[in-house]
Amino acid sequence: MVERNPFLSVLSHAVMLLGVAIVAFPLYLAFVASSHTAQEIVQAPMPLLPGSHLWDTYKTALLGGGDGAGSTAPVARMMWVSFVSAMVITVGKISISLLSAFAVVYFRFPFKQLCFWAIFVTLMLPVEVRIGPTYQVVSDLGMLNSYAGLTVPLIASATATFLFRQFFLTVPDELVEAARMDGAGPMRFFKDVLVPLSATSIAALFVIQFIYGWNQYLWPLLATTSEDMYPVVIGIKRMIAGGDAANDWNIVMATAILAMLPPAFVVVLMQKWFVKGLVDTEK
Description:
By secondary structure, this protein is mainly α. The chain has helices at about 5-35, 40, 55-65, 75-105, 110-120, 130-140, 145-150, 160-170, 175-180, 185-195, 200-215, 220-225, 230-240, 250-270, 270-280. It has one domain (about 75-280): MetI-like (MetI-like fold). The chain is built from 15 helices and no strands. Its main location: membrane. The complex is composed of two ATP-binding proteins (UgpC), two transmembrane proteins (UgpA and UgpE) and a solute-binding protein (UgpB).
């Protein structure tokens, strides 16, 4: 039995609170900056208490406007582009990975293991390595400045395929035999047995892939040249131009706060399923 030491308990809580303060302080500064005018922010010292321009700043950010030298495109449109791209990437990755893992585990065909390892080897070829040929293909197909151009090159996922394959290998053979005796075909077995059993894994991958799709920077930077198709991460970069006085830092900080909300909401909403999908071994 571990003896409870009051001093160690206080010390552990103090360390935890210190860590939270270190992580949260930049977020607090961003929130404070978004409640002041651009002129107040560049003054020294910068105010550390919220100002009175909070709603005006967020309204300007969401609807577009401002006097900065950078982009003044509506952040609401950017967030919509980011949301659609993240959802398409997430759903596409999970769907393709489920089907490919199902085929690799339950179907017999020549060179099955070779096909799996060919998929797995693509982990060594991230977007950054193949970005030149990928851009050329997308450009030749006329997919620049489109949702297809933002999402299709990022949909395939060897990692998700590997995770689903490893889980499918743990499914008892008795389930397969029972489904076959009940007259269920391959897709019926996949839809009614494997997908429900994979619910927690799907939830964990959904969180990971949504954040991955939402935070994409390098590929959208190349694939988009029109303000109408900027994801919010690119929008923040386009807002910053020139010196400090030339930027609407209050709008930039408001956009940064808004950009953090959807991923945070997804993590909070699916936290229980996310943790269970990562640690639960009893499916």
